[in-house]
Every structure is written in C-alpha cells, then in structure tokens.
Amino acid sequence: MAEQTSIHIFLSHGLESGPGSTKIQALKILAETFDKVQAHAIDHRSSKDPAVRLTQMQNAIEASGALPENIILAGSSMGGWVCAQTSAQMPVLGCFLLAPALAMPAYPQSSPRIQARHVQIIHGWDDDVVPPLPVLDLARQQALPALMLPDGHRLGDSLERVTEEFGMFLSRAGIHKTRTGQK
Asked: Among 72, 102, 117, 168, which residue has the fewest nearby CB atoms (within 10 Å)?
C-alpha cells in the first residue's frame, strides 16, 4: 500500500497582521493535528502590495514542491484575496477564506473564479472593512458555501467557531486526524 501524500496548507494573513496572529496560529496548530499535513504560515509583512503578496504565495508553493491537488489555501482579509487569486490560477484541493478582501474595487482582480474542490467562506455581518454583501454575491455567483457570523472583520469573537469550521473543512477534504497524537 502506498504512503499517503503530504498535504500542504498555506496560511496567508491580512494586511495589518502577521504569520504569528491569533487566527493564523490557531489554524496552523489545528492543521498540524491532522495526518501528513505540513502547515506553512506565509510572512507577507514585507509588502502591503497585493501583487507582491500573491508572488510570495506562489514562491512558497513552488519551494514546497506541493502538487495543486495536495494544497489547501487558508487566508484572512487580504490573505483571503491572495488565496482566492492563487486558486484562480491553479486549481487546488481547498480554499478556506475568512473575511476575504473580495469584490472590492481597490483590489486588482477582486472577483476571481475560485478553483478548489472544497471551498468555505466565513464572513462577519458587522465587517466594516470588507463589506459582506458583495462577498456573498460573489459566493452566490460561483455557488460557493458561505457562513455568516455575528462578528466584525477580525472575527475575534468567533475564533472557536472558525477553528471548528476549519477542522470540519479539512475532514471534508479527506484529511484525517492523527490518532496517536504523533505524525
């Protein structure tokens, strides 16, 4: 029997955040409890330019050697935009987007065609940075699942729910929890 291929999870933080942010670290810690997962928290702090951050993601994927069918992208705000754009260019296994900066006129190509076998968008009804209704419209147009929570842009009051949803998302993508506590 062939050994299961590693799944690479690339985590992309928001504009004013970093790879050590609460959300990114919570998702990374959870991801690492799954079998054969390598989680990569990309550090985008060197630039606020969306195109530069997109290139950073592409470089991280290339450096990992991961195949698209073994990649899950997870991002928040501008990191969600980076993940959506990456999946528009390369069909991936999964795309998990938190308050993604989509359908915004100031962002280039802000309505990408998300190409992933598994997609989940989570957004706060009270988001005052990325308006929820254009994101919901984009989700409707592409028939993507979207979960709306009574929270703001940072989803700070929903961290437990977000991590629970991420765990279920990984399970739906066919990734299994480590049974013994070791990888």
From this structure: 168
